[in-house]
Model the fold of this input.
Amino acid sequence: MLVVADASPLIVLVEIERIEILHLLFDQVIIPPQVSAELRQPARTQRVRDFMTAGRSWLVERAPSRVEAIPGLHAGELAAISLAQELKADLLLIDEMRGRKVAAARDIPITGTVGVLELAAEQGLLDLKEAFRQLKATDFWISGELLDDRLRMRGEQSH
Done:
């Protein structure tokens, strides 16, 4: 499966110490240089910068041949969408709503951090309640009620 990622899912998965599920789920994840640069910024937490410094054989950097100019999107989102489209990726990991809408309009299959965690839970790679608890403790911009609803839909209790 060919998977391209924007920065947000990587940042969040690193912060909740679940980043290795990407390798277990997808074998390889491709990021454009703009996303790599975003993850290495001094403003990122030490944990995220350490993750990028350590390097992972399953995380591959590749530049898109062309980046489409789309108003309202950050450089990383633009590059990730362009790369996913160029490579005809099976999946783009992206959380930001505007970026998701742009990708969907280009028929790029998408999922975000929550979708990755749910997929990992379906494959027995993690406890979803615990992962969502960790997610709620971050500054990730998702409603706790939405996460609780997702658990209820799956027949799990949030407490």
